[in-house]
Structure formats: C-alpha cells, structure tokens
Amino acid sequence: GAEVVATDIRVKGAGTSAFINYDSSFDGEGKKGLMTLVACTATDCNTNLMVRGGTQVVVQDSVFNKTTRTNVHLGDGIAELTNVKLLGANDVDCSVVSIRKDSKATLTNVEIANGNRGISLAGKVTMTGGSIHDNKGELAGNALRAEENAVYKLEGVKIYNNHNTSNEMAAGVSFMSKGSHGTIINCEITNNSSIRTVGAIYAEEAELNIRGTLFKQNQTTGADGDGGAITLEKTKSIIRECTFEENKTGTTYENVAGAIFNKAGSDLTIRDCDFINNTSGRGGAIANTGTLVIK
Questions:
Q1: How far is CA 239 from CA 6, 57, 193, 196, 220, in A?
Q2: In Å, what is the CA distance from 129 to each residue of 63, 81, 112, 154?
C-alpha cells in the first residue's frame, strides 16, 4: 500500500522494465500501491512501464520511447496518463500499449505512435485528445485492437497514418472482436489503410457508436479489398453526424464499399451523415447486405 512519487527521472537501456509497480497486498485503508511519475523519460528499455497486482500509476508530462517490447503494459492495474508521449519501434512485433483484462486506463492528451499496433485492449480505456498515428505492420487493428468484451471510448482523438500490411482480415485503425464495445466521438480518422479488409474500422459481433467524426482518405489497396472506412459484420451500430470523404477501395467488381460495408447480420443506423467523393468497384458510399436505416 505504499505511495511513491518520482520527478525528473531518466532511464536508458534497462534490461527489464524501467518503471514497475507491483503490490499484491492492501494497506489498512483498502488501497493498493500508487506510483506517480512526473517529467520522467525512459528509452531503449525492455518495457518502459509495467503495472501489475491491481496497483495504480499516474504519469504526467513524460516521454517513453523506443522499447524492445511493449512500451506500457497494464497486466492488472489502473493507469492515468496525461500529456505523455508513448513511442514504439516499427520493427517490434508488438503493441505500444497493452491493457489486459481487468485493467483500466485513462489517457488525456497522450500520443501513441511508431509501433506495429498502438493499443492492444482486453480491458477498458478512455482516451481524450491526443493522437494514435504511424503504426504499421501485420497485427490486426494497427491503431487499436479490441479483444473479446473490451470497452473503449475515444473523444477528440486524431488517428492517422496507420497501415496494415497483412493480406488477411486486418483493419488499419480498429479491429473489434466478439462482445467488444466502442464509442468514438468528435475524432478525425484519416489516411489509414489495409490491403484486404477495411482501411479504418472492422467490427464483428460487437457494438459500435460513432458521432461527429471525420473519416477521410482511408482505403483498402488490395485487388479484393472492401470497406474503405468501415466494415461491420454481425454488429449493432449507430453512426450519426459524421463525414465520410474520399475513402476508397479498388475499382474492380471484387472491391466493395468505398465508405461503409454493412454485412449480413449487422444492424446499422446512419443519421445526419455526409458522404463526399467516396469510390469503389461496387457501392461508392455504402454497400449493404444487412439491416440498414438511413435518416
């Protein structure tokens, strides 16, 4: 149940974790250990920050850079990050941030970049402001992978230049699995891509709500790519007050849905949205084989 505050600490080249918070016991008030890091930096470590054992960590005005594995790992804990840069390495086959089951993260004005994937999520995350960008590789969901029953909320986040290089079902921004729940509000999702399946968001047996968000210049680049911005499969979704502009797939008959592909078994409501100059071989704006209501 101890509390540790560290200010202006610099760590470079640690063989394991630069900072680790782990405590399996409660103090007399029922609280677990709390670590606060202010104006700290960590570079070229195995993992820059690890939180386990149900403990808490608060990080402010810090930079964690160039790990050989995951930059921030929440194995079982709570994290609050404000004004923090989390920078990975594109040649590392892992996520910049890993939030496992029973973990919760609150991110405010956080930059997540230069990994194979930005966030790997099995728990819960709320992200306000900040950005997720320039994550590239074969891991599905290069900005965010929401695993089974994960929950995320993104508000005012800029998500750009994330690119999937796999020929499998991928998603340049978010790949959502069974039972996951996503909320996206007032975000900008631009210039993301995958080869085969959806330039930005893919959701299967999930729930997705999007409001006031710009989807621009997202694309699939493969010969049979579909869903320039969003592909939904057996998913319930509401998309309102959004703009879809210049999203695209290829132009052959095998390419489907320049902006949104609502597949069989999905229930989608679109309200007060604009579709501008989206292109595809079939369904320049929307392709639908599920249930679709447009208002």
A1: 43, 34, 20, 23, 21
A2: 17, 12, 11, 8
Looking only at Cα atoms, what is the longest distance across the chain? 67
Q: How far apart are CA 38 and CA 34, in angstroms?
A: 13
State how far the Cα of 205 lies from the Cα of 194, in Å rounded to an integer: 21
pTM of the model: 0.94
Residues 23 and 53 sit within 8 Å (Cβ to Cβ): yes
- According to DSSP H, which parts of the chain are helical? none
Q: For residue 25, with 0-12 CB atoms within 10 Å meaning exposed, 13-18 middle and 19 or more buried, which class applies?
A: exposed
How many CA within 13 A on the CB side of residue 234? 7
Strand partners, 14: none
pLDDT, tens digit, 9 for 90 and up, residues 198-222: 999 999 999 999 999 999 999 999 8
Give yes or no for a contact between 111 and 84, defined as CB atoms under 8 angstroms apart.
yes
**Nearest residue to 228 via CA among 272, 180, 172:** 172
